Amino acid sequence: MTRSVFTAEHEEFRSLVREFLAREVTPHAEEWEAAGIVDKRVYKAAAQAGVLGFSVPAEYGGLGVDDFRYNAIVAEELAKGRSSGVALTLLNDIVAPYLLRLTTEEQRQRWLTALAAGDMIFAIAMSEPAAGSDLAGIRTSAVRDGDEWVINGQKTFISNGILSDAVIVVCRTDPAAGHKGFSLIMVEDGAPGFQRGRKLAKMGHHAQDTAELYFSDCRVPVANLLGTEGRGFYHLMENLPSERLSIAISAIAGAVDTFEQTVGYAKERTAFGQPIGSFQANRFRIAEMATELDIARIYVDDCIRRVVEGTLTAVDAAKAKWWCTELHKKVVDQCLQLHGGYGYMLEYPVARAYQDVRINTILGGTTEIMKEIIGRDLGF
Question: If 38 and its partner were Cys, which of 27, 85, 148, 188 is the partner (CB 3.0–4.6 Å)?
């Protein structure tokens, strides 16, 4: 299908991203998956190639490209093949906006320049053992003691948890203030009382390190507060629409990639003397997937336009997130079925896609939470 949301300049950038991935990521994919972590040097290479930190203003070492369509292109290209361990969308779509929007000049010089250069890798720590989608249930606390914050608590399911040089930690700074009692505090590697736990063994996305983090009387300077004290929950909510849209973008790109591979397989693989795609049941299934993917992409492209215009709402993003991730899961499952026994073999991309796809309806807010957001907006 023809997509009008991107210009020729955007497509030139897409070619640059593809070339970077082919050169710096694809040759190392198997090695990184086996190790359960990527080589940190890939982020330095990404910054040099212009695919990391491009939204950062030039005075802090970036390109000053404030256009979400470039973020969308990186998300789409990463979703294809075996690039899931390289967390460029985490840094470009989640961390960078916090550092652009919430930092002081001193913090920008310290962290934003390091992100744009690929010199520091960041993570954001929201989830806890008893608080996932329910961010209001966060119990990690931060108490001010003179010129320092003293942090106590535990985080889990943290992407880049092992590799990161600094973590944005969501803390409860006023237990009695409800949603107005949360703050965002940067904890840098080596802070006393900060300890990384085990690297978690996951069903999929094996090259993406995911870890537990522990804070035991962890002390960091008061100057490490991001944004306004007590406004942490609202800071998170401001960024969630684009974060959730990024997940939807990745989901559709990944689904299309698996679908296209499967169409090729269905034309070449024969059974009973004819290509398996020519059987009516299979042909109808393929036709349905093609239609659903085109319709979903039209909605997602419209959401991308609305991000650029500044009109995307949390409800728009919730619709895109739940529908596209559920569709991704459905498409991969059906494509694996069309591969038959070969689909169960990990040497086939569809088998790895089946492992990786399951997290998408959970991270960034579950499908159920997305429907709750939409339902409430409808007055229920």
Answer: 85
